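Need tokens for this chain, all 164 residues.
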Amino acid sequence: MRQNNARRILSYFFDRRAFEAFNSGDTSKVHEFISDDYINRESQGAKDSYRSKLRGPAEFEDTVKILRSAFPDLHYEEHAIISQDNKVVFVGNVTGTHKGNFFFIPPTGNKISYESVHIHTIGKDRKIVEHKAIRDYLKFMMQLGVIKPASEFEAYIKGCKGVG
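Here are the structure tokens for all 164 residues:
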């Protein structure tokens, strides 16, 4: 029981440090909590992208750099951190202002605010070894102006997503 409790506290500590790096942009201590074997499942979708080949602290640092250059006031607000075995789940809200290029999307000046869930796996080296996320992409893309609801459903979608 003690070992499981200690692992839970350790996991919580590393998860919290990861989001502090996103909020501040400071990646100088990433190697202390991101494993050399770290993989971000979010960056693996674009197979031809240089990001699909990144691993370890370099991948995490690149993600922070990309997000903070697009959203300089990026902020992750913690609603809950849940830990079980070697998994740590962050539930929160992401906010920011779109002031720089976000991949193919030029700056809009729009504010964003959406819910997200991040699942981290803690490896044998007691560092974060894997990241997966669940986000409200519909709300996020609507806030950026990338997608618009179909006209016959516009009032409903804007109402349920709190956009517009």
